[in-house]
Amino acid sequence: MFQVSNQHGFAMGLVEKTPTPFYYYDMDVLHATLADISRHTAGFPYHVHYALKANGNPFIVKEIAQYGLGADLVSGGELKAALEAGFKPQDMNFSGVGKTDWEIRMGLSYDIGSFNVESIPELEVINQLADEMDKTAHIALRINPDIDAHTHKYITTGTADNKFGINIEKLESVIEHALRLPNIHLCGLHFHIGSQITEIQPYFMLCETVNKLLDHYEARGIHFEMINVGGGLGIDYYHPDSHPLPDFEQYFNTFKQHLKLRPNQQLHFELGRSIVASCGSLISRVTFVKENRNKQFVILDAGMTDLIRPALYEAHHEIQNLTSRETEQATYDVVGPVCESTDVFAHDRVLPVTRRGDLIAIRSAGAYGESMASTYNMRALPHSVFHSNK
Question: pTM here?
Fold first, then answer.
């Protein structure tokens, strides 16, 4: 059925007939994003892995798999989902600081492309389990390069104070240890410096760090088949309509120009947010508009159980009233129904005059929205709908 879109691109026939709250996925935006990634990596030894933690919706994951991307995993559940979606095991990387034995065994049983290893104890456990299964584990050592990506403290991963990775000053001894283990194949080095990175300078610094390490180990006769620079590329949460796609050209060009790959060496990326964030919106209905002495509140039927990022990270999302025809504007706190003071989507947000029953879109919610939803207060998980004009 033909759907009339509003000024923000929503198919309003679909939106108005779907019970709220729900996630609305614009598949045209997702396909444009994936096509742009393909365009900027074509002809280079680059392999992009989709980070399933950003959004594990089966329909979304299957669409991404069809573009030939690999999968970046952080749990056995994600490994199972990736297999069901059609990702190839040899194109899977298993990340995470606390892999359990059953998860490691599962990865070994499918001969996945790489375990991103974060410590000597983990290295030894993987070697032991691989020996028990008569397998060889392909691993990349995750290095903590002590680079501050200038993001929120809860999503910074690459500084010396974070729990992730091996401190760079200990790398020499860890490499030597890995090379001695009989059931370990050391195939690469892995880095990840943070999330929602909107400045290019941290990636310059990462390239410089990688180049120095490659020079050092090349002089010692140690060759790495693969370098993995993680992900972390941010999106424009403030202008979702005018900037629906991240600047993939600048991102990939930074590595093309500044990272000196060796012959027969591959460069891996682990992108999540930048692939799926822009295509998703959380749609909610206004239950009440409430006024107290100092504030007006728009109370939605969606809450922090449906989208926790504002409560957890103080994250900004654009909020749009899809149905108001008012020309006058007012200032509101946009909140949810959950019995927590942090159940707030936005403070002092200017919207068209809003009334009970209006439909509200919380934009750029395709990443870490549905995947982090919970049933706190015994609320139902949000469902999802998908739309394409093609």
Answer: 0.93
